[in-house]
Sequence to fold (175 residues):
Amino acid sequence: MLTRRNILQVGGVTLAASAFRPLVALGADIVDLTMTGRPDGSDVWFDPIGIHIQPGQTLRWTNNDAGNAHTATAYHPAIFDRPQRIPDGAEPWDSDYLLPGETFSVTLTVPGVYDYYCLPHEHAGMVGRIVVGDGPAADYPATVADAALTALPDVALANFPAIADILAAGTIRHE
Fold:
């Protein structure tokens, strides 16, 4: 027999389930990256150093390095007059200094290649590359090709993983 109580129970369960559904979808769209280093400070890095995501996904950096503050900063003239190494029309970002345990998130919507660095550790080669979208590697070089001629530290340029490798693997970890 269908009673008012049964209807309210079913309705309450349905309402509760639908309230949590967006949280699950958002959680699936978050990609975690870490900022870390050796305890003696002799090496610092982002992990993964290269990652392939889809437009609309959110990246969240967490500083897991107990001995250093780090940033996740897009290469863009609007931020410290750096060369542009993100797609035209994309919003540049700068996390500011993150102390150990702190996080920063950004959602990328424009397909292309995004290169970023840690402000205090760029000269130590602490850089990362994000490929957004499913185009073949040949679709992406214009974003990076002109920028590769700019004056970035050699150690930074040497640490960017190849776009084709990121597309093939999905994730490139620090070695």
Remarks:
- The longest helix spans residues 4-28.
- Residues 43 and 165 are 23 Å apart (CA to CA).
- The chain has four helices and nine strands.
